[in-house]
Write a structure and sequence with these properties.
The protein is mainly beta and 773 residues long. The protein contains two helices and 66 strands. It is globular, with a radius of gyration of 30 Å.
């Protein structure tokens, strides 16, 4: 090995200008992993590095790192390749769905032609090669030629047999020919004679090399020769050929697992999965990298810049730089991966579970893993860094104790219940030390799922396929089991909530219905318990549906249930154990056309319901993104989708709200992203009212927030002389102002007074805002 590791710097979020502790109302921020990098590109003194869902770039001038994601204006996620056109100073971003972004001078231009085009099969952008002002784009169906300055597709080459589609893995050129590494060998088309390359007859397969009809995954032109990788699809069996005209030779006698080949005018770089080889123009070996003294290598791509620094995209280590004998590792802070099944937030402590189950509620066997976002920093806990988590699988739910945010519980589908204090595992509860039970047919397999605290800080847990279908862990660490299995009479039990009147409601998934009970505080006496298993019936006792995915109680004590047919509401949930006046209602949305009223979200599977401080409802769906509804559900305040917002996906798996800041966290099948809403939880008094930003500078155009208010406070803003300029009512504990007076004009420079009071005027506050215009 030619490389000696003399010094190692690990830079994790140092001098990174991409995170801040508070975002303004109406703004988004993403929370994505940046360890698993795919591609690296050099341009304009920046090193760009891509992950599946975003890009970060290192500025070599000031040693800062910045992010480039949907929040900053990228059009999509699922990045499949990047490249930098030196001729046009443009960053090319290609996506797995055929979408393309061009980034130049802090502007992003989207080219969605391929994404929108009706093409059967895959549209993946595999790679890009730049020639003059054009990008030759390797796609799953052919070669697309993109005119970068004019931001338009010039032509498309279908080079398969008789002009059919063909998966193009990579492209290069020696200025005489354009070469395409494909799933059926290497093709070349004459470039220098201006032949019509849209005609497949002008493309020729290089049949004189071995395996000429097979998959070639990478090709470069270096020092007047071609270097092409034959992808054997067998572990450690890839072969690199050197092609000189009609002659070929093996590059070496080694068998590789080659992920990429790259080259510049002086260097040839071969990236194998767990090591890197570098060569000069004479094919002298100028260095090899076998380790960085970090996580094991999983190299995807590497380049050498004009300062002779090696930059590596590594799936285990983020962006790695080698400068002489020094390695530096750059990873913007984020969770380790994009998995998320549930989120819980209390007191600015966010915990996210990452486990999974299939449609039959069987294990997916995801490793035990939890993401935490505490103190504006992400940490992922798993068996690699927390020995006490070994032996678990599929952590499906987490809940942060609202009375003690340093305490968190995690429900495992097979491993029982885990208790954390801060980041430390302090207890593991299973069939040996609690009333939780393992399966009769599977010893030591304890399936826990639903978690909810009651007003006395007792934790309620659902336990599937056992006699003690419900257990409670009291605040003083006593356990009681409730033998409700015979009444529930179904295999699985889902989420559980505790209502204002101390009733408990649990979801019986897979089309069974709901189960409610009231143990009346006598945990040891089952004889006085009220229980009821029921289907979702309307006022005519007709079944609406029993496919239930989510449940929540709102500020008025009404129970909102998310189903495969939208939302139903129980307006009199206190009657659940009575036969009188107890049924579900669907919210009717009026229509301007007579006779065409509809039910709220009637065609949506509602996967999440969360109530904010203003009693508005955040709704997550399986296919249509997220909605914010008015308190009664009849008005749509927001509808976020992956197309009209930075939302990562329209498949929402979970939603949680930070009641202090109003930030709403959306868990999706592509990761976590958050949006700061206008509503927060109301405070007990008006003693800690906070105005942000303050002062309001001359170039600020966003929303001003007044937070820390009592719920539904009246807020009046006056100038220093007492003239009223604005008045509103807080949403929960937060009011917003656009900085304009009643006439719609921005207020003048000066000090403004904010008077707030609750409804009866017993809790008041006066704050000040300084405007500088």
């Amino acid at each position: 090995m030619n490389t000696h590791l003399l010094k190692l710097f690990i830079i994790l979020f140092v001098n990174i200008n991409c995170s801040f502790s508070q975002i303004a109302v109406g703004q988004w921020r993403e929370h994505m992993p940046y360890t698993n990098t795919n591609k690296v590109a050099d341009g304009n003194n920046m090193i760009y590095c891509s992950t599946d869902n975003g890009i970060f770039y290192y500025n070599k001038s000031d040693n800062t790192i910045n992010k480039l994601t949907k929040v900053q204006g990228l059009s999509d996620i699922g990045i499949s390749t990047i490249g930098f056109s030196q001729n046009t100073s443009t960053l090319f971003v290609g996506y797995s769905n055929g979408n393309i972004d061009l980034v130049k001078n802090n502007s992003i231009y989207n080219i969605s032609d391929i994404k929108r085009r009706l093409i059967s099969g895959d549209k993946n952008i595999n790679n890009v090669y730049f020639l003059n002002n054009y990008a030759y784009v390797s796609t799953a169906f052919g070669i697309v030629v993109l005119d970068i300055p004019n931001k338009e597709i010039k032509e498309t080459y279908f080079i398969g047999d008789y002009g059919t589609t063909l998966n193009i893995n990579d492209i290069t050129s020696d200025l005489n020919y354009i070469y395409a590494a494909t799933d059926k060998g290497i093709y070349k088309g004459e470039y220098s004679s201006n032949l019509n390359l849209s005609d497949y007859n002008n493309w020729y397969k290089m049949t004189y090399i071995p395996n000429s009809d097979s998959v070639f995954n990478s090709i470069v032109s270096f020092n007047n020769k071609l270097y092409a990788c034959y992808d054997n699809k067998n572990h450690n069996k890839d072969t690199i050929y050197v092609i000189d005209g009609y002659n070929w030779a093996y590059f070496d006698s080694l068998k590789h697992t080659v992920n990429s080949i790259s080259a510049n005018s002086k260097n040839l770089i071969i990236c194998n999965t767990n090591y890197i080889q570098m060569f000069d123009n004479n094919l002298n070996n100028t260095g090899e990298v076998w380790n960085y003294n970090l996580n094991p290598l999983q190299v995807k791509y590497a380049i050498i810049d004009n300062n002779n620094q090696l930059w590596i995209a590594d799936r285990n280590n983020g962006l790695v730089m080698k400068n002489e004998s020094v390695f530096e590792k750059f990873i913007p802070n984020g969770p380790l991966n994009a998995k998320v099944s549930s989120i819980s937030v209390q007191g600015n402590n966010l915990w996210a579970a990452t486990g999974g189950k299939d449609g039959s509620w069987s294990n997916l066997w995801n490793r035990p893993e939890i993401h935490t976002f505490v103190g504006e920093s992400w940490t992922t806990l798993n068996s690699s860094n927390t020995n006490e988590m070994s032996g678990y699988n599929d952590i499906l739910k987490v809940i942060v104790n609202p009375s003690n945010p340093s305490q968190t519980f995690a429900a495992s589908w097979g491993g029982g219940l885990i208790e954390f204090n801060n980041f430390d595992v302090v207890a593991h509860y299973n069939e040996t030390n609690s009333t939780l039970q393992d399966l009769d047919v599977w010893a030591k397999h304890v399936r826990t799922y639903g978690l909810a605290f009651d007003e006395n800080n007792n934790l309620w847990i659902t336990n599937s396929q056992v006699t003690n279908a419900i257990s409670v862990k009291t605040f003083d660490n006593k356990w009681y089991g409730f033998e409700y299995y015979s009444e529930i009479n179904t295999a699985s039990i889902g989420d559980i909530i505790v209502t204002k009147n101390n009733h408990k409601w649990a979801i019986l998934p897979r089309g069974v219905g709901l189960f409610a009970f009231n143990e009346k505080g006598t945990f040891e006496n089952a004889s006085d318990d009220d229980t009821k298993k029921f289907q979702i019936l309307d006022e005519n006792k007709q079944i609406i549906t029993n496919d239930i995915f989510s449940i929540a109680e709102d500020k008025e004590g009404q129970i909102w249930v998310g189903t495969n047919k939208g939302i139903v509401v129980y307006y009199n949930p206190e009657n659940v154990f009575s036969s009188q006046n107890f049924y579900a209602q669907r919210i009717i949305l009026p229509s301007a056309i007579e006779g065409q009223a509809s039910y709220l979200l009637e065609n949506e599977a509602v996967t999440a319901i969360v109530v904010n401080g203003a009693n508005q409802k955040w709704i997550g769906t399986e296919t249509s993104g997220a909605f914010l509804l008015s308190a009664d559900g009849t008005e749509e305040l927001h509808h976020f989708t992956a197309d009209n917002s930075p939302l990562l996906s329209d498949n929402i798996t979970t939603i949680a709200i930070d009641g202090i800041s109003g930030e709403v966290y959306f868990g999706t099948d592509k990761g976590i992203i958050s949006f700061r809403g206008t509503a927060t939880d109301g405070s007990e008094n008006n003693e800690q009212v906070y105005v942000f930003p303050n002062p309001v500078r001359e170039n600020y155009t966003g929303i001003i927030t007044i937070t820390g208010l009592v719920t539904d406070s009246n807020v009046k803003i006056t100038d220093i002389s007492g003239s009223l300029v604005y008045e509103t009512t807080s949403e929960g504990g937060q009011a917003t102002w656009n900085g304009k007076n009643f006439e719609g004009r921005k207020v003048n420079t000066g000090i403004y007074l904010v008077f707030s009071s609750n409804k009866d005027g017993t809790k008041k506050n006066i704050s000040k805002i300084l405007f500088i215009n």
